[in-house]
Design a protein that fits this description.
CATH topology of the largest domain: Rossmann fold
Bound molecules: adenosine-5'-triphosphate
Domain ABC transmembrane type-1: 32-311
CATH architecture of the largest domain: 3-Layer(aba) Sandwich
Oligomer: single chain
CATH class of the largest domain: Alpha Beta
Organism: Holdemania filiformis
Shape: elongated
Order of helices and strands: HHHHHHHHHHHEEEHEEHEHHHHEHEHE
Strand content: 5-15%
Protein name: ABC transporter ATP-binding protein
Subcellular location: Cell membrane
Number of domains: 2
Strand order of the largest sheet: 6-7-8-3-9
Largest sheet: 5 strands, parallel
Distance between the termini: 42 Å
CATH superfamily of the largest domain: P-loop containing nucleotide triphosphate hydrolases
Structural class: alpha/beta
Pfam families: ABC_membrane (PF00664), ABC_tran (PF00005)
Number of helices: 19
Helix content: 55-70%
Radius of gyration: 35 Å
Low-confidence stretches: 1-6
């Protein structure tokens, strides 16, 4: 994944323009295929016209025209398939780029975004909204351009053959399009109602299963049956409607095209001005009949494409709103980790005042220092702001007043890359990542070597446990491979793998029994050597009296 640092360039328009610039040649090819496909689809009726004209003149028709007819049909089919493949590929390229840019944007968002916004909403943006965007290209604008070209091509060919029929179609085509849209809208509405009803039933099933005993004991079976009936009835009725619209639409279109041809034939047989407008050879009549039948499929497709474009609009607006989210300060590397300033404290809070919301202050004029190599424990009532101090240390938030410095550098000025070398952070439970057991420790950081991982594992005493796993370090992650205490040991291994200067421990033994806690404490003692350790835990302080207690 390519991360962009100049994040002002992260917009939906730029994502699409990037693909267009990268795929210029391919898109030109697509344009040519669409044009060639449109032309090729117009050729078979022309050949047919020649054949029929020759036959009516009682002239012999050689194998050439028949072969040409077949070849043009085959060519039109091949070009149509090629067009579908190329349009799908373009749509996929665009959605891949948009997803990459969304990931890059996600990386720049401030911590406040993740607490403010529901995670499901962000997931839906990445999955559903980008899929809708994909449909916009796969089954929207590009296909619509191709279908519009087809309609125009057919109309032009008919105009050349018969001016009268051309005018007739110019009047009838918009009417037929309106009928098509009407049926499509009704059908989609019915399908939506059906989906909503089915979703309600799906929702009801786990509710029923969870409350089965209560339903039986309170004798509420009938009420539950009524609720199911209601939704199933709605689903049934909406499906009936959808089927009805689906079944009457095709006959209406077939009837319309036959009526157009019939009107043309009748008018062609009339004398005077009608004949000059509608009269044509038998071959041309066969050709225009073939053309008339070709106009309805693209018309129907355009209706569906409009629908896809409309449903993509809401998704596009959400994607654009996400790209407009204010981003956090993205600092460049400011600390020289190999030569940290000797006299500076590892951590210093100087008159820090901070609140997540403007009107609610969590920390007020808070000051303390932690020297290099020192072990301290933060203590205070619940809600005093201990975890908040960790967030300030990690530079996830900036204080409204005062400063938080790490080895003399403001915490929010430390780059993300440097943080992994500076901080090891252990929480109450391990937050696993998809991957192998080894990946839980390296967190996919390629700069962490296999030796460093092995050393971290030895340090916390998990080496024999991991060696006994089917594929050792390469065993796919599964939480059932480890006990609760071993999971915490793994979390400590993850924290120390990059050999960080500061260990931050947030109630790491809160979920452990006393036996396991002793094991974790011993691993922690080894992991803490030569590091600054800042922890939140009364239990840790009681067992680690050599440290200093800081009251918040
Ligand atoms: N992301 C957030 N957005 C808004 N308010 C928050 C956020 N995180 C914490 N708070 C609030 O900040 C205050 C301090 O919370 P914090 O978690 O730092 O306390 P704590 O001392 O660690 O508490 P505990 O010992 O119970 O974990 C609380 O009132 C909490 O509701």
């Amino acid at each position: 994944m390519t991360m962009k640092n100049n994040n002002t360039s992260l917009t939906l328009k730029n994502s699409v323009l990037t693909v267009i610039a990268q795929q210029r040649l391919f898109l030109t090819g697509l344009g040519i295929v669409i044009l060639a496909g449109t032309l090729a689809a117009l050729l078979p009726p022309l050949v047919l016209e020649q054949i029929v004209n020759q036959l009516t003149l009682r002239q012999a028709v050689g194998v050439g025209p028949a072969l040409a007819y077949f070849l043009f049909l085959a060519l039109a089919g091949i070009l149509e398939s090629l067009q579908t493949v190329m349009i799908t590929r373009t749509g996929q390229k665009i959605t891949r780029q948009v997803r990459q840019d969304l990931c890059a944007k996600l990386d720049t968002l401030p911590a406040a975004y993740f607490t403010r916004e529901d995670a499901g909403k962000t997931v839906s943006l990445f999955v559903n909204d980008v899929d809708a965007l994909s449909a916009l290209f796969d089954n929207g604008v590009l296909n619509m351009a191709a279908d519009s070209l087809k309609v125009i091509g057919v109309l032009v060919m008919i105009f050349i053959r018969s001016l009268g029929l051309g005018f007739l179609l110019i009047v009838i085509t918009p009417l037929l399009f309106a009928v098509t849209r009407h049926f499509q809208k009704r059908m989609l509405q019915a399908q939506k109602t059906n989906r909503a009803a089915i979703a309600q039933v799906n929702h009801l099933v786990p509710e029923t299963l969870n409350c089965l005993r209560m339903i039986r004991s309170l004798n509420k079976q009938e009420r539950m049956e009524d609720r199911y009936d209601q939704h199933l009835q709605t689903s049934y009725q909406s499906l009936e409607k959808a089927n009805f619209y689906d079944s009457v639409y095709s006959p209406i279109i077939v009837f319309s095209s036959s009526a157009v041809v019939a009107v043309m034939m009748i008018l062609a047989t009339l004398s005077g001005g009608w004949r000059s407008l509608f009269g044509m050879s038998v071959g041309s009549a066969v050709a225009v009949t073939a053309y008339v039948s070709k106009i309805f499929t693209p018309l129907e497709n355009i209706g569906m494409e409009i629908e896809n474009i409309q449903s993509a609009v809401a998704g596009i607006q959400r994607i654009e709103a996400f790209f407009r989210q204010p981003q956090r300060n993205l600092p460049e590397a400011t600390l020289t980790l190999s030569a940290l300033p000797v006299g500076e404290p590892a951590l210093a809070l100087n008159h820090v005042t901070f609140g997540y919301e403007k009107e609610e202050t969590v920390l007020r004029d808070c000051s303390f220092r932690v020297e290099q190599g020192e072990t301290v424990t933060l203590a205070g009532r619940t809600g005093a702001g201990k975890s908040t101090i960790f967030k300030l240390i990690l530079g996830l938030y900036s204080p409204q007043q005062g400063s938080v410095t790490i080895f003399g550098t403001p915490a929010d000025q430390i780059s993300d890359r440097q943080k992994r070398r500076l901080f090891g952070y252990v929480e109450q439970t391990l937050r696993p990542a998809n991957g192998t057991v080894g990946d839980q420790i390296s967190l996919f950081d390629e700069t962490i070597t296999a030796d460093q991982i092995a050393h971290a594992v030895r340090l916390v005493g998990l080496d024999t446990v991991i060696a006994q796993l089917p594929q050792g370090m390469a065993t796919p992650w599964d939480p059932s491979l480890f006990s609760q205490g071993q999971l915490q040991l793994l979390a400590i291994a993850r924290a120390v793998a990059a050999d960080p200067r500061i260990l931050l421990l947030d109630e790491i033994t809160a979920n452990l029994d006393s036996g396991t806690e002793a094991l974790v404490m011993e691993a922690l003692r080894r992991a803490s050597a030569n590091r600054t350790v800042i922890s939140i835990s009364h239990r840790l302080y009681q067992q680690n009296r050599n440290g200093r207690l800081i009251s918040i």
